[in-house]
Amino acid sequence: MRRMTWIAAIILSLTLVLSACGTKDAESVVKDLDKFLNSMEGYTGSGTMTLHNGQQPQAYQVEVSYQKPESYRIKLTNVEKDITQIVLRNDEGVFVLTPKQNKVFRFQSDWPQKQGQVYLYQTLVQSILLDGSRQFTTTDEAYVFDVMAQYNNTSLARQKIWLSQDDYHPLQVEVSDTNATVLVDVKFDTFEFNPSFTEDYFATDANMNAGASAPTPESPTDITPKDDQESVAPGDDGVGSEPSAPDQEGVEGNVDEEHDAGAPAEEGNAGEEAENTKGNVENNKEEPTSAVQQSSDTFVAMEPTYTPLGVSLKDMTDIEYAGSPGLLTRYDGLYSYTLIQTSAKDMATALAQGDLVNLGYTIGQLTAGEDVQTLSWTYNGNMYRLSSANLPEPELIKIAQSVQAELSK
């Protein structure tokens, strides 16, 4: 009898030991992640990202690649609309590419060092390491962390991260607001650590040529208003330089003088800024016909599917600048803001310095003056500028994320 008791005790002890060996606690996983992040040479992965903004969720195929020390490639594809954009960081800088439309835009930024991205492995691991109050659970296949979100969009409060128990690669990410409503989720289908990349994998020209519908320039060209006034989209007279303040007589002239990123009108009012723009654009028109109608085959106006409570559409005006069609839309109410969208030229443009913002489907650039802040981004060959004197930054981002529907006028 005593012998049977000893055998049972031994079996129970072995079971507990084996069970403990197969499961790690939060502290062990965190230590492993810290070591692995420092030793990792690179990764590549793919999956589906869904943005839950506006009326309908927007799904995108995402491919992400990284190579030490600072090479990144993010490919975002809207399958339904057949739109692909590539965000690159290489030795030459940070670029947003639309190969099919032969568009390249250069950003002056240290992205993504200060702006985390939900699909970047470093961002996910760092959020786990930095949150001392992290919550930890396990499933049959994953270690699950619930931590504070580390993004410059303050509406993104927390995120839940699923990491494979095999090698800590990401399986899924859910980012939610303060009400626990999921705003962004990413599900990875594949993920590989330390892959081998071709020599030109992160090169701008190679990525443009791989998906371009027309020949591309030998190298991206930075354009400033002094170099080529005809090549600058509305609002970009600060391109490649620090924003300049308006003169004492007030802002006069064309669209890009009045909507320079971070350079507000004298009163700092986005509505008055738009009124001046509207008049100046109309004065520059040679014909009264709509600029959008003139180039309907190359420019498709979009509209946001999200509008803050207490805000309504005030008016919209077809514009044309430097031969490019566009649309100016104003909103008024609790908040006042202006959305300018225009067709961009087929060349690279160096944008003014600012903070890069993750819009999900692309990367935006946030610049702030004394009174007006402006969020600029490019998508499907068009340039967008959302400006306001009183719109909170989370609302500014949410509106920009919802500019996905074709305008019905």
UniProtKB/TrEMBL annotation:
<feature type="domain" description="DUF4367">
    <location>
        <begin position="303"/>
        <end position="403"/>
    </location>
</feature>
<feature type="region of interest" description="Disordered">
    <location>
        <begin position="208"/>
        <end position="296"/>
    </location>
</feature>
<protein>
    <recommendedName>
        <fullName>DUF4367 domain-containing protein</fullName>
    </recommendedName>
</protein>
<dbReference type="Pfam" id="PF14285">
    <property type="entry name" value="DUF4367"/>
</dbReference>
<dbReference type="InterPro" id="IPR025377">
    <property type="entry name" value="DUF4367"/>
</dbReference>
<feature type="signal peptide">
    <location>
        <begin position="1"/>
        <end position="20"/>
    </location>
</feature>
<dbReference type="InterPro" id="IPR029046">
    <property type="entry name" value="LolA/LolB/LppX"/>
</dbReference>
<keyword id="KW-0732">Signal</keyword>
<dbReference type="InterPro" id="IPR052944">
    <property type="entry name" value="Sporulation_related"/>
</dbReference>
